[in-house]
Amino acid sequence: MSLLVGLLSKNEISNSIEKNLIGSTCKQNLYLKSDYKSADKNFISLNFSNRNLDSDINVCNSSGIIVNFTGDITNRAELIEKLNLSKDVTNSIIISYAYKKWGDSFAINIYGFFSIIIYKSKEKSIIAINDHLGSKPIYYFKSSSIFLISSKINTVLNMIAKKKPNHSRIRDYFIFYNGKPGETFFDDIYNLEPGSQLTFHNNNISIKKYFNYDLTQKILYKNDYEYEENFKEIFSNTISALSDNLGNQKIGSSLSGGLDSSSITCMLKHLEKNVIPQSVLFEGLNAQDNKAADERKYVKDVSLKYDLKIDYIPLKDFGCISELPQAINYNDEPPSLINGYVHSAIFKNLKSKNINTLFDGFDGDTTVSYGYEHLFELGRKFRLINLMQEYKDMHKNLGIKKINYLNAIQQYLIKSYVPSRIFWIKKKYGSSSMVPLEWYKKLNSKIINPPSYEEIYNNYRGLPIQNFFQKNSQFAHYLSITDRTIQMSLNLINHNASEYGIDIKFPFMDRKLIEFCLSIPSSQKLKNGVSRSILRRSLKNIIPDTIYARYTKSDLSPFSRNQICNVSNEKILESAQNISFFDTKYIKSNLLKNKSKHMVEIYQIIIFDAWLRKQNF
Questions:
Q1: In angstroms, rounded to a whole number, what is the distance separating the alpha carbons of residues 93 and 23?
Q2: Phi and psi dihedrals of 281, rounded to 5?
Q3: Which of 86-95, 310-319, 450-459, 513-522: highest mean pLDDT?
Q4: Contact 380, 387 (CB under 8 A)
Q5: Whether residues 421 and 503 fall in one domain
């Protein structure tokens, strides 16, 4: 993991400011890999790294363009050919030539996971770009005298006079979890939205979206075989692009035994990579929890198919509460991933084995989709016979014998024609409620305003109601892919990985793969009742048969749930009182009555209290 910094000042950057900037960043277990300071000494660009990543600064004196890059380019070979470059060029040089060829519109041609800072010395302007997901964050801050941009908030915090909490983001955190586009937990510090290009010139900031998914794009092949071969090719090429520069180095892979992690591990081995699967063992659980969390059977099947030696990581008395001090210490914003301790355990193990790269199956189910929107598509088109058959096959595959066909009509036909305002009234004033309204109940209504219909609708681009689809199946899939919690989660995982010196890669999040899955018919995602059908069929000969036929997922939450349940009521109430805007009576009479059900909300309270104390707010 690398860290990029760019500082443009109205005045000459003094040696003391430069030393402070470098010193505060090097304290984050990073060393200064490359730096550039403009001739007029008004701009400085720094690139820090905790290992020899392909991240550096490229200076082109003839054009006055300075490129600071970190990340991976997954269409690197294609760009090298188009730009007539040698195969061994750095990614920053590729970006330099891409900018010269395509100008300000160059970013749409770059696929991968990256953040980029470009300084145009002749114009004294900065351009900052992130990938389609914003997976590698870019934070920025502007005052009357400086514009500072960095891939870590802490770098910005160390350079400003006084940090202040962002009350808007804090409110959203306890109602929606995610926040409004671009907001962070600190006033005046912003996070660049996914697929965006920021330009700073003449003391003005302008931001435009250079990328969004094209919902007019439809991929239609002649037969299933063509869909399968194209998916397999994109998936294989993505993993190759993310691993080819590693040579014969050991590569870690998260292996839970699920479809996503098994697909990545098997493909790495299929491509003859030196993969060392990492599998967590949950020890000391009761029989019920152990049954839900134990995936050794499936992990073993992957091991046997490719003669892999699994690196098992035993965990006991471990979870979100025991990891809280370290999580708070490592993160600049509240570390909100309740099961993030699983990644932490893998990162620690990899670091002890001197393995620097981890492939992870994060959110493959969102990219590929379970395909349930196909049922909605059939219902909307009144293809009722097909709807009933898919519904029947789906339940059969899940081992459910009793099938309620009326429920299929209600969920996938009638529901889509009911105006969203009707659901709003029912949820707001009825006995059941949607998540934002439910989460708001723990807040003091005299201090925090309730979320309105418009606010909830804008946040989710619809209402967060199960099986409530809009427009068509492609749009339903699009809403899942562009959920803002994806960027938030990726930023947190990437940040945590960097603290251990781990470069984490997410093949299922590749733009080309997402675009493909978004553009194929929904019948390729749910077929004959088989969810995520295109992934299963494409890799049928690569993954074990048991993985191909698996429809269940493990439960990673027992340790965190047990630890949350063991936190005393007094401690939870104390944290709530420290935060000041909670309704402690409601928390006591509801959340504390069923800690297991409300463990995420309780964790938010505990972690946020600890974060406030760290920041001295």
A1: 27
A2: -105, 125
A3: 513-522
A4: no
A5: no
> Same structural domain for residues 156 and 22?
yes
Q: What is the pLDDT of residue 471?
A: 85
CATH number for the domain spanning 9: value is: 3.60.20.10
CA distance 306 to 300: 10
Tokens for 346? Answer: 């893998």
Segment 394-412, tens digit of pLDDT: 999 988 989 999 999 998 9
Interior angle at CA 526, CA 524 and CA 529, nearest 5:
135
Q: Are residues 425 and 468 in the same domain?
A: yes
Q: What's the rounded Cα separation, in Å, for the pair 420 and 366? A: 24
Domain that holds residue 328: 224-367+483-559
Instruction: Identify whether residues 245 and 267 lie together within a single domain.
Output: yes
Residues 203 and 234 in one domain: no
Is 468 in the same domain as 505? no
Distance CA 136, CA 492 (A): 10
Closest listed residue to residue 8, CA positions, set 50, 60, 46, 62: 46
Q: Looking at the structure, do residues 119 and 23 belong to the same domain, yes or no?
A: yes
Nearest to 580 by CA among 447, 394, 393: 447
What is the residue whose two structure tokens read 């390729």? 524
Query: Structure pTM?
Result: 0.95
The rounded distance, in Å, linking the Cα atoms of 497 and 343 is 8
pLDDT of residue 54: 61
Mean pLDDT for the chain overall: 92
User: 231: which residues sit within 8 A by CB, 6+ positions away?
Assistant: 513, 516, 517, 534, 535, 538
Residues 257 and 322 in one domain: yes
